[in-house]
Amino acid sequence: MLGKSQDVTGSVLALAVLSALLISARPALAQTEKVLYSFGSQSLDGQDPVAGLVFGKKGNLYGTTEGGGFYDAGTVFEIATTGKEAGTEKVLYNFGSHLGEGSYPHAGLIFDKEGNLYGTTWQGGAYGVGTVFEITSAGTEEVLYSFGSQSGDGAYPLAGLVFDKKGHLYGTTENGGAYGYGTVYKLTPAQTETVLYSFGSQSDDGSYPNAGLVFDKKGNLYGTTWQGGAYGQGTVFEITSAGTEEVLHSFGGQSGDGADPSWAGLVFDKKGNLYGVTGDGGAYDEGTVFEVTPAGIETVLYSFGSQAGDGAGPAAGLIIDKEGNLYGTTSSNSGSGCYYDGFPCGTVFKVTSAGEESVLYSFCSQPYCADGAKPQREPDHG
Known about the structure:
- With 382 residues, the chain is mainly beta.
- It has one helix and 38 strands.
- Among the domains are: 147-250, no CATH class; 253-376, Neuraminidase (6 Propeller), CATH 2.120.10.30.
- The protein has one helix at 4-23; strands spanning 46-47, 54-55, 61-65, 67-68, 75-79, 89-94, 102-103, 110-111, 117-121, 123-124, 131-135, 141-146, 154-155, 162-163, 169-173, 175-176, 183-187, 193-198, 206-207, 214-215, 221-225, 227-228, 235-239, 245-250, 258-259, 267-268, 274-278, 280-281, 288-292, 298-303, 310-312, 319-320, 326-330, 332-334, 339-340, 343-344, 347-351, 357-362.
């Protein structure tokens, strides 16, 4: 668990690196970094933006902080990216203002067609185990669903949301469900929630999903669990629209395989292959970038720790460009001794479809880690 001073530095980092990744994912990125905004620069600002960002129609960035804000329960914020207001932050909503509200949003946001924002909090709500919320363009918040309202319901949603074509929302909860190992759920526009799948129903099932989901063209959902599976080190899974689950890959079944896909979700390429990262395992036990085919065949594209100054411990998901190159972040470095005030520095990296990795940027390259450190981290559960 990070101390308070470390949290502030981490929050500076998370926005800077994820903004850079989302703004541009070209095959050849210049290795320069710009901090758009440093959290903690004003009273009652948000802290710990551990999630990714989303662009609005006018080019501004929107995200969440897990802590800070007026009630110290997290915020939804907007960052201007152009014009005279570039780099200016506005807190759109402070969580914790009333009883039954959500608190501590860990995941990012998504927009609907009308410009409203949707997300989750992993605590709070009517039953204390998390919520799904909506923030209107005017900054009004509504709790759409409080987890824990029924037997077998999910609890503690650490992941974000995805829409289907009918406007239904889908996500995962890390805990709860019929067996206590987490769920995949669906929420209708009428705010009716259905548990599509409860993990733990079979001996080699995955457990504790805390990353988001992705759809294929047929409407099937794909995601990861950070534990469970045939070897206890996590899975890649598929959930059909009817709620049937299949484990496509169980991590840890072979030498050099990854382990613990952690908080990172999946991305598709044009051929329907899935890509993601594991925070541990691989040839050097520093994490991996992996590929899983629609048939469930897994390949480790890259094992972190193969060279000095390489990244280690990737915790956030990947993005993919038109050429099939993958981009992501690691929360620390391997073998470089790169620390400042207890921070492993972390990197932005690129992995080609051929499995060649290059470090695009190493954090703490500016004095006193003014450029940020340790992109993404685990939430403070205790």
